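Translate structure to sequence.
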């Protein structure tokens, strides 16, 4: 249906003339000669734009503008005036007018202004809808797994505390999402959540990033700099890949936690801090401690509460819904028609070990959505790793499964076929290790140790 333009002016001849011109261009119109008529027409919900005279009889068009913007701020209002001054124009624009034009009217110019205002209004509405939908699709845990549901309930309870939380799990399991949930559910939710990946900085830069520096503390330090401890204010600081943090930085963080204060590089005085600590790692911290690569006292400080995320292969019941969510998210954010997965794709996914976990699943589906030219994603649309088949063939294993089998065998050998020690080295539960030993037909050794 063609857009409808509401013309608000007490000059009936002008209203009729403008209405006829717009109708000749295929647009619909409605006319109003006073505030009451304008609000009644506007309330129909069909109005795409309003042309409003600055003076409507004895009524002030600015007051009518305010009423219209209160009723629906998304509909553009263009002011028409024969008494244009800078003050009235500025006032109208401040109150939400999309534009203003002066009499006598140049209809060609007016038409361009109106159609452009309608186009921009529709784009803004589409953007609001998209943002709203993307907010609904904001990365979150989509799960039916009883184990994960119980874990999320634990996260909800921990969020309300001030305890430091250590999040463990393989790469791609969603550790950052848990950090977000802990912050958003806390009393600090209105404050900042600052994040840093400890593995992405060399020691000197990580030191500077966390603790800041004073002016002149080193060559090139032309001004003082607040590190993340200070920038976080009374918010939350999330340190990812804590297992890769240098020992010297670990010592400084331990002091910060104990004393609730830090000292900038080159500084002589301390700065009080008030941050909540959340950390994460994909490493086995107890092994790092045994190898003297992580401070035991810091570990006990950071691990007042531990959240351990299972790998995707341990909650495959979530694959169908996760897949649908990622496909919908990608199609929506890239303005593509929604796509569906062919049953063969889900069957392949259920046979695949997902070493990269949920992140790998999302990347796989993003690739498939980009490649797929039809409404249904097939096996042919998946990345090359899936093209050789992911089910039993030949020796029954694909390349990734063979690599995992070889790693388990090697680890068992190094652990003297002690399954508990091997599971610890592999950062997986003993139950998972037993399942994989059975699945891959691994001879776990004559000693058959637990």
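Result:
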């Amino acid at each position: 249906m063609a857009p409808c333009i509401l013309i608000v002016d007490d000059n009936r001849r002008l209203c009729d003339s403008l209405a006829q011109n717009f109708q000749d261009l295929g647009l619909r119109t409605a006319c109003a000669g006073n505030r009451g008529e304008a609000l009644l027409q506007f309330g129909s919900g069909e109005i795409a734009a309003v042309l409003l005279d600055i003076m409507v009889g004895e009524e002030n068009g600015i007051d009518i503008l305010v009423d219209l913007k209160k009723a629906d701020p998304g509909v553009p209002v263009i002011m028409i005036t024969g008494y244009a001054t800078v003050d009235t124009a500025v006032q109208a624009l401040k109150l939400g007018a999309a534009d203003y034009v002066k009499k006598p009217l140049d209809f060609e110019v007016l038409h361009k202004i109106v159609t452009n205002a309608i186009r921009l209004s529709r784009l803004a509405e589409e953007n609001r809808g998209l943002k709203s939908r993307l907010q609904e699709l904001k990365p979150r845990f989509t799960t039916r797994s009883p184990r994960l549901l119980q874990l999320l309930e634990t996260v909800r309870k921990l969020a309300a505390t001030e305890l430091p939380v250590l999040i463990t799990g393989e790469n791609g399991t969603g550790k950052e999402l848990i950090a977000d949930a802990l912050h958003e559910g806390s009393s600090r939710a209105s404050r900042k959540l600052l994040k840093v990946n400890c593995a992405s900085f060399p020691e000197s830069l990580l030191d500077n990033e966390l603790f800041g520096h004073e002016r002149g503390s080193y060559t090139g330090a032309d001004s003082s700099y607040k590190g993340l401890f200070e920038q976080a204010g009374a918010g939350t600081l999330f340190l990812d890949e804590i297992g890769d943090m240098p020992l010297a930085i670990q010592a400084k963080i331990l002091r910060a936690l104990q004393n609730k204060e830090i000292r900038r590089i080159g500084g002589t005085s301390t700065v009080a801090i008030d941050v909540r600590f959340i950390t994460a790692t994909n490493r086995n911290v107890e092994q790092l401690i045994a190898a003297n690569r992580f401070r035991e006292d810091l570990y006990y400080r950071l691990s007042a509460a531990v959240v351990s995320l299972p790998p995707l292969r341990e909650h495959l019941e979530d694959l169908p819904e996760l897949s649908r969510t990622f496909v919908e998210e990608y199609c929506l954010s890239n303005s593509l028609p929604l796509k569906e997965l062919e049953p063969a794709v889900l069957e392949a996914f259920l046979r695949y070990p997902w070493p990269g976990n949920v992140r790998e699943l999302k990347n796989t589906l993003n690739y498939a959505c980009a490649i797929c030219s039809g409404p249904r994603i097939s096996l042919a649309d998946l990345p090359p790793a899936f093209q050789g088949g992911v089910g039993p063939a030949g020796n029954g294993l694909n390349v990734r499964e063979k690599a995992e089998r070889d790693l388990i065998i090697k680890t068992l050998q190094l652990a003297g076929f002690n399954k508990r020690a091997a599971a610890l080295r592999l950062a997986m539960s003993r139950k998972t290790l037993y399942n994989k030993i059975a699945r891959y037909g691994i001879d776990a050794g004559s000693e058959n140790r637990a």
